[in-house]
Amino acid sequence: MIYGHGDDGYRYNTLFKANFSSNVWYEGTSEKLLSHLQEQLATIASYPTPNADELATKIAAHHQVQPEQILMTNGATEAFYLIATLFFEKSVAIGIPTFAEYEDACVRNQMKINYFDRSALTKASFDEDLVFLCNPNNPDGFSTSVSEIKELLTTYPKTVFVIDEAYIDFTIEIASCVSLLEAFDNLIIVKSLTKLFTIPGLRLGYIVCPETIKTRLQQSKMPWSVNTMAIEAGKYIYDHYEAMKPNMSVLLKYSRMLQQQVNAINGFKVIFSTTNYFLVKLDTPDAAKLKDYLAHHHQLLIRDASNFRSLDAHYIRIASQCPQKNELLINALQAWSIQ
């Protein structure tokens, strides 16, 4: 897609008061992490390790898997494109609405794409070679339990399931599927550090998968795709993981409050979510107009969700912030509703 994702404030000549368009931790990047990275600036004079192996080893220990099961990537998006190369001209099923880069990666690899309703996953059947599932899903927060995914892996052993867990830490409703890797060889898990630790500009993600799949992925991956500063950030995070991990219960409390407040405004219907982000359906197909209105008149940024497959101009996506910023949004939406 390139253009059309959230966090597109670059399109406006505006200093935003709050950004509700990007599903990242609302308090921003850790000051301690920023200070550490400043101390590491001189290391950019040398090439990074080709596969960021030292970081992969730390992550493997964190997940209690083998380093041979971890492949570092330039954000989660590189992972999706790498995975698709293994299935050139084969078939794939994608649960929609969802992140557009799954589809783009599959189109690039000339795959036959079938779509299904993400919220009806347990009622679907699969004979495709590959399935992409965002869990919890972006943009609606819909989630699937580990037991339900285990049933899919068991029922369709010839289909490889890619579980995108970029937002797994933004919910307490479900757990990671990493525990299933020991028993299933048709499972690939994609993870991201950029959302939870607010480092999207560094582009840092990774794949957790069977060693045989990692070996094949490695053959398609270019060296040095993860830069030195991203590696240093990842190493610092996993050396201080428990201390750095945000208190998600606080953010989810703010999200529940915001969802209720938005839903109470005339013309707005919230599709309730157990994550920090959620969809809102407008009574009128004015997502783009509302986005521009909020940007120009209130210096607030939201996500126009009309370009998600199966959605239209009735939909926006909001990611909760702190109560003070959420109040700015509520006041702005109320002003819009009485125009």
Q: N-to-C SSE series?
A: EHHEHEHEEHEEEHHHHEEHEEEH
Structural class: alpha/beta
Beta content: 15-25%
Helix content: 25-40%
Largest sheet: 7 strands, mixed
Strand order of the largest sheet: 2-8-7-6-5-3-4
Could you explain how this protein is built, in words?
The chain has 339 residues and is of the alpha/beta class. The chain has eleven helices and 13 strands. It has a seven-stranded mixed beta sheet with strand order 2-8-7-6-5-3-4, with helices on both faces. The two termini are 33 Å apart. The mean pLDDT is 96.
Supply database-style keywords:
4-stranded antiparallel beta sheet; alpha/beta; 339 residues; 11 helices; globular; 35% helix
Topology:
Blueprint: E1 18-19, H1 31-39, H2 53-63, E2 70-73, H3 75-85, E3 91-96, H4 100-108, E4 112-117, E5 130-134, H5 146-155, E6 160-164, E7 187-192, E8 205-208, H6 211-220, H7 228-239, H8 241-244, H9 248-263, E9 268-271, E10 277-282, H10 287-298, E11 300-301, E12 303-304, E13 315-319, H11 323-337
Helix pairs in contact: 2-7, 3-4, 9-11, 10-11
Task: Compose a concise summary of this entry.
The chain is an alpha/beta fold and 339 residues long. It has 11 helices and 13 strands.
